[in-house]
């Protein structure tokens, strides 16, 4: 289907008016040619593979499209990105399929055919008109065929097909931003000072119910401890299977952030004992607000 970001507006959060699509699927995307070694997932035994061809969202028809998956938004009030004061920055996962080959030089140099496989990468679009329209960001300036801000080559999770749901938050103490994405049974943390250039910082690995489904839609939330000046960092995550009321649900863990971008759990037992966000069986993929009045 048409996997895009929709747009609706409301004055009272009850009555909503549908607007034009905010971030449509990427169209007419160009030829891709890059390599990656998967250490987990369906291609873990293939060694270094070559992804080469025109992206598609149609499993067989090279339609040149990339789907717009979930993510998060930051209002850049101080223009640290240089994209404009109060620019609205939308971080999202682009998802597509592409021809995949072993990078072994066979078949006239193309590599041994594996098949069509999935790719997920992190992108950025920004708005200068309050969210009515968005412009695709690309370091080379080509908004029509944008480059990923965190491409597959920066995926430390080891599975090119599972690398999604970017959530961005500001660390006021260490004066840097964190972007958290999931990759299978782990969450990867990247850091940046300008919201454009990201480096890998650390990861959080699952210790409870390992192997049962995947993690999705992570977020790091700084919260004051009641009655103190201490700040804790709450790691929130959605689990596909095995939640409190069976099926899917949201869990959270309490910890701290270090200056190098590492989330440290409160104790050695923290990750083994998730706390439940909601006791229902359909509370999933919640997106937190940050830097808002209580």
Give the structure's gist in a few sentences.
The chain has 294 residues and is an all-beta fold. The protein is built from no helices and 17 strands. It has strands at 8-9, 17-18, 32-37, 48-53, 67-76, 87-102, 113-127, 135-136, 164-171, 176-183, 186-192, 199-205, 215-224, 231-239, 249-257, 263-265, 275-276.
Give the SSE layout.
Layout: E1 8-9, E2 17-18, E3 32-37, E4 48-53, E5 67-76, E6 87-102, E7 113-127, E8 135-136, E9 164-171, E10 176-183, E11 186-192, E12 199-205, E13 215-224, E14 231-239, E15 249-257, E16 263-265, E17 275-276
User: How widely separated are the two ends?
Assistant: 38 Å
Number of helices: 0
Q: From N to C, what is the helix and strand string?
A: EEEEEEEEEEEEEEEEE
| Percent of residues in beta strands | 35-45%
Write down the Rg: 20 Å
Q: What does the overall shape look like? A: globular
Summarize model confidence as the mean pLDDT. Answer: 94
Q: Which spans have pLDDT < 50 for at least 5 consecutive residues?
A: none
| Category by helix and strand content | mainly beta
GO molecular function: sucrose alpha-glucosidase activity
Protein name: Fructan hydrolase
Family: Belongs to the glycosyl hydrolase 32 family.
InterPro entries: Glyco_hydro_32, Glyco_hydro_32_N, Glyco_hydro_beta-prop_sf
Question: What would you note in describing this structure?
Answer:
The protein is mostly beta strands. The protein has a domain at 8-168. The protein is 0% helix and 41% strand. It contains no helices and 17 strands. Strands 3, 4, 5, 6, 7 and 8 form a 6-stranded antiparallel beta sheet that branches. The radius of gyration is 20 Å and the shape is globular. It starts with 7 loop residues before the first strand and ends in an 18-residue tail after the last strand.
């Amino acid at each position: 289907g048409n996997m895009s970001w929709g747009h609706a507006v409301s004055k009272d959060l009850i009555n909503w008016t549908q607007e034009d699509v905010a971030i449509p699927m990427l169209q007419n995307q160009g030829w891709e040619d890059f390599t990656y070694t998967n250490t987990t997932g369906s291609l873990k035994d293939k060694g270094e593979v070559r992804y080469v061809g025109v992206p598609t969202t149609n499993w067989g028809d090279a339609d040149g499209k990339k789907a717009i998956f979930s993510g998060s938004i930051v209002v850049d009030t101080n223009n640290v990105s240089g994209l404009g004061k109060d620019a609205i920055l939308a971080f999202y996962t682009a998802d597509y399929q592409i021809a995949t080959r072993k990078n072994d030089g066979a078949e006239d140099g193309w590599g041994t055919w594996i098949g069509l496989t999935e790719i997920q990468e992190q992108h950025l679009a920004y708005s200068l008109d309050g969210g009515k329209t968005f412009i695709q960001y690309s370091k080379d300036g080509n908004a029509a065929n944008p480059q990923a801000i965190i491409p597959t080559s920066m995926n430390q999770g080891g599975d090119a097909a599972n690398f999604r749901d970017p959530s961005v938050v500001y660390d006021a103490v260490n004066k840097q931003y964190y972007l958290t994405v999931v990759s299978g049974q782990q969450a990867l943390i990247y850091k940046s000072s300008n919201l454009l250039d990201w480096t890998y910082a650390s990861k959080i690995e699952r210790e409870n119910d390992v192997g049962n489904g995947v993690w999705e839609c992570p977020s790091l939330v700084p919260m004051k401890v009641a009655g103190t000046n201490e700040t804790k960092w709450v790691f929130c995550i959605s689990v596909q299977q095995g939640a409190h009321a069976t099926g899917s649900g949201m869990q959270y863990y309490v910890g701290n952030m270090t200056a190098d971008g590492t989330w440290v759990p409160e104790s050695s037992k923290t990750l083994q004992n998730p706390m439940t966000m909601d006791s229902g069986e359909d509370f999933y993929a919640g997106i937190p607000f940050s830097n808002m009045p209580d």
